[in-house]
Amino acid sequence: MIWAQARSLRDPGGGSVRGGVGAWPVSADVQTGRFGQNLCSELRSSATETAWLARLLSDWLQQTGEMSSVKVESVVKEHAQIGEGPVWEESEQTLLFVDIAGQKIHRWNSATNQIQSLQTADTVGFAVPRRSGGYVAGVGCSIVAVDWSTQKVTSLASVEDDKPENRLNDGKADPMGRLLAGTMRRDAQTAQVKPGSLYLMKSDLSVTKLLGQVDISNGMDWTADLKTLFYIDSLAMSVDAFDYDSASGKLGNRRVVYRLAEGEGVPDGMTLDANGRLWVACYDGGRVLNIDPATGKRLQTVSLPATKTTSCCFGGPDYSDLYVTSASLGLDQSELQKQPQAGNTFRVTGLGVKGQPSNAFSG
After folding, report:
1. How many other C-beta atoms are found inside a 10 Å radius of the C-beta of residue 279?
2. pLDDT digits (tens, 9 = 90+) for 153-195
3. Which of the pair, 333 or 49, is modelled with greater confidence?
4. Could you say which residues bind a divalent metal cation here (predicted)?
5. Which of the ends of the chain has fewer CB neighbours closer than 10 A, N or C?
6. Which residues contact 151 (CB under 8 A, 6 or more apart)?
7. Annotation-wise, does 253 bind a ligand?
8. Is 187 annotated for ligand binding?
């Protein structure tokens, strides 16, 4: 009821606001501030919906000022089953990403709008540039080397050979050139208590387990001083931080940085901007959250026209564009009709922040 009243306060002739639940026209009331007064009056009439609508109001009022210039566009129309792991390659101005269930590694050229792809033999959780050339990727439970020019794939190491029901998921290189990669159960819906782990691979290709008892190992990134690792185990519904030993890669002092609120979705992939703030893609939330890890506060919400947003990275000539991958797998025909861009990769501009170059594996 209050939702209907809130919708009635908008003017179809206005601009658009991207808040936590979608994009709507902006009314004169929003532009003059009367919208907040009117909606607050409505909020007082229904205590049961106050908390939810207060968060909505906060989103709207914030976005009108800070995100009025934000633009979201679909740039890679690949309709991936599970698009994931975007990495910007500065030297060629290309975006590297994977389709996990589609078993493909993709490279999108931002200048030509052309896509090159490599088919893998199993699910592919990530692909990361390699300092010696080519890539390392997580295929099934194997970490492999990929020679893009010849399309040759060579196994480097494997994990969890005793767990055929598991697969590698998200992976990323730290600033020292070590590879961190996590696992999860192939069928995440099947009940099993924390079947995954997080591993570290050094340049000599040795592999060490850093963390066990993980549900779905996902996003990670490091502070500039390499003292903190931000990490997501999706089903914990939080973004966590660890003390990170830059010499060994060992983890300690785990703590929660941000716990997702109801309706925000499931935390998935993430990246860190040049100001040390986190950008977290929320699966089944259709959004990316901008979080200040120092305060644990959500600063901004960027909505996407696909509910299954999966990961993000900064890119473009000056790293001011945010690229966001998404998934289409799991949507029924009715949902796909409502979300025709599901599975595409989106470019978000006008955020007013910049990212940093990605790291490459040193092995």
Report:
1. 28
2. 999 999 999 999 999 999 999 999 999 999 999 986 655 678 9
3. 333
4. 84, 218, 268
5. N
6. 118
7. no
8. yes
Q: 327, 82 in Cβ contact below 8 A?
A: yes
Check if the beta carbon of residue 343 is closer than 8 Å to that of residue 78.
Answer: yes
- For the chain, the structural domain boundaries read 2-68, 72-349
d(CA 291, CA 221): 13
- 233 in a known ligand binding site: no
156-183 burial, b for 16+ CB within 10 Å, e for fewer?
Answer: bbebbeeeeebbbbbbbbbeeebbbbbb
Token pair, residue 228, equals 């903190």
Spatial distance between the Cα atoms of 119 and 212, rounded to a whole number of angstroms: 30
What does CATH list as the number for 72-349?
2.120.10.30
Q: How far is residue 80's CA from residue 51's CA, in Å, rounded to a whole number?
A: 36
d(CA 84, CA 62): 29
Tokens 């040049």 correspond to 274
pTM of this prediction? Answer: 0.82
Distance CA 88, CA 206 (A): 26
